[in-house]
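Dear Dr. V.,

Thank you for agreeing to look over these. As mentioned in my earlier message, I'm a first-year student in the group and I'm still getting used to reading structure tokens, so any feedback on how I've presented them would be very welcome. I ran two proteins. I've put each sequence directly above its structure. The first is here:
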Amino acid sequence: MVDIEQITSGINFSLTEEQLMLQKMAREFTAKEITPVAEEYDREAKFPEEIFHKARHLGLANMNIPAEYGGVGASVLEECLVSEEMAYGCSGISTSVGTNGLGALPILLGGSEQQKAHWMGERLGDKGEFVSYGVTESGAGSNVVGIETRAEKKGGSYIINGSKIFITNASHANFFTVAAKTDPNAGHKGITFFVVDRNAPGVSIGKKFDKVGQRASDTAEIVFEDVEVPAENMIGGEGKGFYLAMKVFDYSRPGVAAAAVGLQRRALEESVKYASERMAFGVPIYQHQAIGHKIADMAINYQASRLLVWQAAWQADHGIHNPAVPAYAKAFAADMATRAAVDAVQVLGGYGYMKEYPVEKLLRDVKIFQIYEGTSEIQRNIIVRELFSGKK
């Protein structure tokens, strides 16, 4: 386990001028393009394709595509800055806009130069396509080793059979990065990643799920029936999929946690605004300690969550692998965002329960943060494992 002092040594909490400009651009983009339509996209479960392309043209989507493949080559911290700003406006829209970054990670971290140039440069960059990340199955969510999708070698190809569930942007994705078992008897060493084109015979997309929250984010099932995938679409080598998936988490969890931070800030600001205007017993309600302290706790937890996210992002950007740190960020930010949303509804009282006020939506949107990209329980399992490694 990496010592915490080693992780934080040399840290600088000041953003560069370029990062401040990026943050400002993302905040202005959110205010113009996301916040005004968030209620409509949520109500209609509308996929934000137009918003995605506007973000892409500004360099606010596909951010992790390296410059040599036509992208901006943003750091994980810079991705987190944008994720926080967009999720402030709507975490559902933010999720769909940012999912290409997740789907591209196996290629970015384990792909060949040819794979990166084609799938990231040509397909995502030049053509503006969508990619989804296909790991979760009905019987295997947090337990990646439990996946049952098979990939059997046949000549110069692999035949994939199985299904993936709860896959973000699946209905709109042009290709998928898919984890499958190439050796079902090898445990975690029998998992391999492949790129699968949506148009390959045997690929089908199930009905889009109707969700409680983050309704602007498309979520659907993918089914593979005798799908032939050329061996050249294998990512990172046979049997390397589990290790690649674990590495992906180091880069993906900070961004998800950052979105939870953005939702926290929205809950905090809506609470401050309402508590400043709403009068009770002759004074604004924030002057009543029961309300004022609740909002103070929101502010404390928002700042603490943000610092954990930045630490996790800094670690990823510096190539330090310590799974506990993104687990700290993901668990704390998700749990505190959930608390903030609940408390914001309480601060607004009856109005907070009505759809005409945005905190009702925050309450519906927030719960998934404790579930996707590894549940809060799994994050704690990771932390326990790291704390007690070598103690047996």
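The second protein is here, in the same arrangement:
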Amino acid sequence: MKENTLKAAITIALAGASAYFRELIGPVIILALVMLIDYISGMVSAWVRSELSSRVGVIGIVKKVAYLLAVAVAIVADWAVQTAATELGVNLSGFYFFGLLVTIWLVLNECISILENISEIGVPVPAFLLKITQKLKKTIEETGEKGAGDDTETEKRE
């Protein structure tokens, strides 16, 4: 009985989240998939180098959970902006700027890690693929800083 109640609660929570964050559900699913691929490729890489360690594996899982917490914090920031805007009479429904940026940034971070892992296994990786992934990650980072109101250029001029 408890197992069915737990399954029902998880299903309701996921359905509610997907309805509320329909624009984010795709990127979050992609993030979950690349996190899984990164974890597996990291374990294979460690095995090939004879450095496989359960402690490192557990730390990897904890980091992946922390990634999801970072996405949750970004979603809360989006919600706070939406709520404040609504109070000011501005309609920002569907505003998922920070949640989307953090999710995409993490996806790109995981892709870079996957490329590094498979390179360590001995798979040839085109250099341009790693460079373009890193450039995309940096672009997302800069976009987020602009969206957060980073005025370092303004401060330098003053």
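From my reading of the second output: The two ends are 66 Å apart (CA to CA). The mean pLDDT is 83. Does that match how you would interpret it?

Kind regards,
E.
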